[in-house]
Design a protein that fits this description.
The structure holds 2 protein chains of 2 kinds. Chain A is mainly α. Chain A has helices spanning 5-18, 27-49, 54-65, 76-86, 109-140, and strands spanning 52-53, 89-95, 101-107. The two termini of chain B are 62 Å apart. In chain B, helix 6 crosses helix 15, helix 15 (422-459) packs antiparallel against helix 16 and helix 18 packs across helix 27. Classes of the chains: A mainly alpha, B alpha+beta.
Chain lengths: 141, 910
């Protein structure tokens, strides 16, 4: 994912603030962005790794984003529910690596389409923002 | 698409409840277990590993909440929860709930009942196909026949010739139908069988009438143009109601032979059940006859040929590609063409106003709106009255809710202290109001159903025939729902607002020792409004009742007591002009020989019987009146002895004598108004007048009768010029007035038996006492006055309860203060004054607000009042006094109770 870390962070700040604190000033406005970002990460994770349980998805997101993204793992579950309701992912019970009952999520065909579309969108947005930054710098000179 | 899919999922989850809470718990458990084992592998102690895992996961409950919100539809779930909560709360306060629901049912029921009537009379379309395509001739309905080439204001009824002119030349109509303006009484007897003739109302319609409405017969077939040709076999269509009630849906009626006014007709079909013709009225026609049969049945051979005999209404179905406005323009041109083609047949007066003759085409989906014109004002008054009642009811329930809200202040404060958001509490309060108002609305629909039936029964005695249905229909139910929601919001806003303003600390602190009541302002405002609205209703009911009393107790100019009116119609039994005199004599003699009868007389229309006959007056030896001159008078015909029998005094000259009749002398008795209007101070006896310029000397005035009220068309207005002519063979009289000796009774059976002895085919149309006939004219004003009075009393009671409630509450919450005051030396009088002062201020404000409102309402009533000024100071004063005294009593009770409390007891309270 070729996203500028600064941009990601500025949006994630809200996510960090808003969890557990309902009075965060930016919560209302940026919920969609946060959910959308997290949803996109979950979709991509499932696309790359195949069927996975919630913990697995959370770990993967953590690993990739490193220290930059300090999101509460719990917030992932409402996002997964929403994706399931929309038909982008499906879930079923299975056995986890330590042989316990776990809920496994997998990408549906529709989810794949959605992922492609949203990836395109993201890349486009990022490209435009990048270009915009560069153009501004040239103008200043 | 995705959003819809998600919505359906959430809807399903909402409906299914919380079944998959389990799944989330398992997932969270598993997640934490995996994270813990990972942490263990990283070398943390078991306790620390678990702690770190939980920290990383974040607040479980918050996540669960957000998960739940995502899963179902929180709005609906909250609504369901609030509704359950509200219902539980209402169940726990049965007295409050029942009071509120009953009050609401009354207000919503009254409004809905009036709306049912208004909907039927003012808004509903005819039960025909695509009523919006129909257009009728005439902006205002006109009855029933006019015989000249000009019509006042607009040309709205037409002759047969003019109808054909419009029908054949106007191409914007798919179909243009004509039908009688008014109805005809028919004497009908089934040809086979020996049953006596009965009188029914019929209407003459053009052959394309049913085709124009797009209505087909329920059984048999409808009339067609082929039935409406001269010389065609005589056919008629029967109403479903008559077919069902009289003939029990007997199929042999169709194709059966019936004698209509002694002329054989074939019934070819039955109209569909809901169809009541072209006009909403409480006496819909039972027979539809073709226009071609009119000359024969009405015994008017020339009715279809006379170009100036206008007796038909027109309704047409407009082509989808035609504009009504251009059709109207075209018809205006056609009217002028037609009038010019008859310029030779016109009187000078008609010629003078020829170019001003015009016509209007109006949407005709509701048919001929006679009833609308007649009842519009009354319905508006009733709607206004019920609207005020609804407002008072809202204020009352709002007050109850406020008391309830105040009692629950601690609970609300506690909720807020525990973190409930104000918006959530307001929503809960509003949900409770809406639940209450919807319950009230449901009860209100039942009240409305019963109320409408009752009103219909009182308004039209023959409600069975009325096409107005009392049963709730979808638009009525929708209206009731809307009104319920509206009231729920109206009376719920104040308590909800108070909830939001509740200060948790203030309420939790406990005993409230302040002398000023926070939050009592809305309650006081409501009581002031109630008092103001009550004053409006009390004054309105006073004005209407007084006006009714004046109407009923006015000097009618004739005697009502001890007189019976028997209505027959010799034409229905096929009597011809030359046979009439014999019939009159035989009936007179047989009835007069019944014991107890003191005299008998015939007339065309007995006083206030509902019919009237108007025409122009031309005086002999005077220039004919100009086109703009008012030379209108109203006519009646009577036999010798009539004035004595009906108790109509003669001021000057003599009554109609036997000799006048025997010698066919055209004598006339004019009313005092007639004498003033046409003879202006001259002695009218011996003067002559006529109804046309050519025959200006036809009638000789032999007497002046006292002004009497005969006409029902303008009961509220001054008397018109009236003249009673001696009977003539050209007019078939219908009303028999029988004067009884004091104390004697005349039974209908006796009259029936006597008349059957003369002619079994002569049907009795109606028989009642003259006083009943007179009273029947005041059914509507009486109903309005009674309903308004009922509402007025209700308003008074509700307002008094409101004053009582506020005063009692104030007194109760000031118990401590009263104790302190008494301990410091105040006596009972001081306390009484203290409490009463508050109540009196409320009442005064109410009256202050009510008086201008009342004056505005009185202005609105103005035109409906008789013999009374709209700003009658006596009635306004009486209303103020009534409201003031009952409010004072309502305030006095709690004030007395407060002042009789012992100081020590007061100080200890709470």
């Amino acid at each position: 994912l070729a996203i500028s870390p600064a941009l990601l962070l500025s949006q994630m700040n809200c996510a960090i603030l808003s969890v557990g604190n309902q009075q965060g000033g930016c919560m209302k406005e940026k919920t969609d962005v946060r959910q959308g970002t997290l949803a996109l990460m979950a979709l991509k994770t499932l696309d790359v790794l195949g069927p996975l349980h919630g913990y697995g998805i959370a770990r993967r997101i953590e690993q990739i984003s490193g220290d930059l993204l300090a999101v509460n793992q719990g917030t992932l579950y409402p996002v997964l529910l929403k994706l399931e309701q929309e038909g982008a992912i499906a879930s079923e019970w299975g056995a986890s690596e330590n042989n316990r009952k776990a809920r496994f999520y997998r990408l549906t065909r529709e989810g794949r389409k959605q992922l492609q579309a949203e990836t395109r969108d993201w890349e486009q947005t990022a490209a435009i923002i990048n270009r915009f930054f560069r153009a501004k710098a040239e103008d200043l000179r | 698409m995705r959003a819809l899919r998600r919505f359906l999922h959430r809807l399903a989850a909402t409906a299914m409840g919380h079944r998959d809470e389990e799944r989330l718990r398992d997932e969270v458990e598993e997640h934490l277990a995996l994270q813990t084992s990972e942490n263990l592998r990283a070398g943390l102690s078991p306790v620390e590993a678990r702690r770190q895992a939980a920290l990383k996961f974040g607040a479980v409950e918050t996540m669960k909440e957000s998960y739940r919100d995502q899963r179902g539809l929180p709005f609906i779930e909250t609504l369901a929860r609030d509704t359950r909560h509200a219902l539980r709360g209402l169940r726990n306060a049965p007295v409050f709930t029942i009071t509120a629901i009953l009050t609401l049912a009354l207000g919503i029921g009254a409004t809905t009942a009036i709306f049912t009537l208004a909907h039927a009379v003012l808004l509903k379309s005819l039960p025909v196909s695509n009523p919006s395509q129909l257009y009728r001739l005439g902006a205002n309905p006109r009855c029933c026949m006019q015989s000249r080439f000009s019509q006042n204001k607009e040309f709205s009824i037409v002759s047969y010739e003019l109808y054909k002119h419009f029908r054949d030349n106007t191409n914007g109509f798919e179909e243009l139908a004509a039908f009688q303006a008014g109805q005809t009484l028919l004497g009908v007897r089934r040809a086979q069988g020996s049953s006596a003739a009965e009188s029914y109302l019929g209407e003459f319609v053009s052959g394309n009438y049913f085709a124009m409405f797009g209505v087909s017969a329920y059984a048999g077939r409808a009339l067609t143009t082929a039935d409406d040709r001269p010389g065609a076999p005589l056919t008629a269509v029967m109403s479903y109601r008559l077919w069902q009630q009289k003939y029990g849906l007997d199929l042999s009626v169709i194709g059966g032979e019936f004698n209509v006014n002694q002329i054989p007709f074939t019934i070819i079909g039955v109209a569909p059940p809901g169809f009541y013709g072209d006009t909403l009225r409480n006496t819909p026609p039972e027979f539809f006859l073709p226009l071609a049969a009119a000359p024969l049945v009405q015994n008017k051979p020339l009715v279809l040929q006379e170009a100036s005999t206008h007796w038909l209404d027109l309704i047409g179905r407009v082509r989808s590609d035609a504009a009504p406005a251009s059709i109207q323009t075209q018809m205006q041109v056609e009217l002028q063409q037609w009038l010019r083609s008859h310029i030779g047949d016109m009187s000078a007066n008609d010629r003078a106003v020829l170019s001003q003759q015009t016509l209007y085409l109006r949407p005709g989906g509701a048919g001929i709106t006679t009833m609308r014109t007649q009842y519009e004002r009354w319905l508006e008054i009733l709607m206004m009255v019920s609207g005020f009642i609804l407002l008072i009811v809202c204020a009352n329930v709002a007050n109850l809710m406020l008391v309830r809200g105040t009692e629950r202040r601690r609970q609300t404060s506690l909720s807020m202290a525990l973190g409930a958001r104000p918006a959530r509490l307001v929503r809960q309060a509003l949900t409770e109001s809406l639940v209450l108002s919807l319950l009230g609305g449901a009860a209100g629909v039942a009240v409305a159903f019963a109320g409408t039936r009752l009103i219909l029964h009182f308004a039209f005695q023959s409600a069975a025939a009325s096409p107005i249905s009392a049963s709730p229909s979808p638009p009525i139910l929708l209206f009731a729902l809307a009104i319920s929601l509206f009231t729920g919001i109206i009376f719920g806003i104040a308590p909800a607002w108070m909830t939001m303003r509740a200060d948790p600390i203030e309420a939790l602190r406990g005993v409230d020792r302040s002398t000023r009541q926070a939050g009592s302002l809305p309650r006081k405002t409501l009581v002031i409004l109630q008092a103001a609205f009550s004053l409006v209703l009390l004054t309105a009911s006073g004005l209407l009742t007084e006006s009714l009393r004046n109407l009923q107790n006015q000097d009618f100019g004739f005697e009502q007591n001890g007189r019976m009116v028997v209505k027959v119609d010799p034409a229905l039994a096929g009597y011809k002009a030359r046979q009439l005199e014999g019939l009159y004599g035989r009936v007179h003699d047989s009835l007069a020989s019944i014991p107890g009868v003191s005299s008998v007389a015939w007339c065309l229309y007995s006083p206030l019987s509902g019919d009237n006959w108007g025409g122009d007056i031309f005086l002999e030896g005077r220039p004919a009146p100009g086109p703009m001159d008012d030379n209108e008078a109203w006519f009646d015909w009577a036999s010798a002895g009539y004035f004595d029998t009906v108790g109509h005094p003669i001021v000057k000259g003599r009554p109609i004598s036997e000799q006048d009749i025997a010698t066919s002398r055209n004598v006339a008795l004019i009313s005092e108004t007639f004498a003033r209007k046409f003879f202006k101070g001259e002695d009218p006896i011996g003067k002559r007048f006529g109804t046309t310029a050519k025959a200006a000397g036809k009638y000789e005035v032999v007497g002046v009768a006292k002004d009497a009220r005969y006409l029902t068309r303008n009961l509220q207005q001054p008397l018109d010029a009236f003249v009673i002519l001696a009977e003539s063979p050209s007019v078939s009289m219908r009303d028999i007035v029988v004067r009884m000796q004091p104390g004697a009774k005349l039974s209908e059976a006796q009259v029936r038996y006597t008349l059957a002895g003369i002619d079994p085919d002569l049907p009795i149309v109606r028989m009642q006492s003259l006083s009943e006939q007179v009273a029947g004219n005041f059914n509507q004003p009486r109903l309005i006055a009674q309903l308004t009075s009922l509402f007025g009393i209700l308003a008074l009671v509700l307002a008094s309860i409101g004053i009582y409630g506020v005063t009692a509450y104030n007194a109760g919450s000031r118990t401590n203060e009263i104790g302190v005051r008494m301990a410091l030396g105040a006596d009972r009088g001081d306390i009484l004054a203290l409490i009463l002062r508050g109540a009196l201020i409320l009442i005064s404000f109410g009256l202050l607000l009510g008086v201008p409102l009342t004056l505005a309402t009185a202005r609105f009533l103005g035109s409906q009042l008789y013999g009374i000024k709209q700003y009658d100071p006596m009635i306004l004063g009486a209303a103020i006094l009534t409201l003031g005294s009952s409010a004072l009593i309502a305030a006095l009770i709690p004030a007395l109770r407060a002042s009789s409390i012992l100081p020590l007891q007061a100080l200890r309270a709470d």
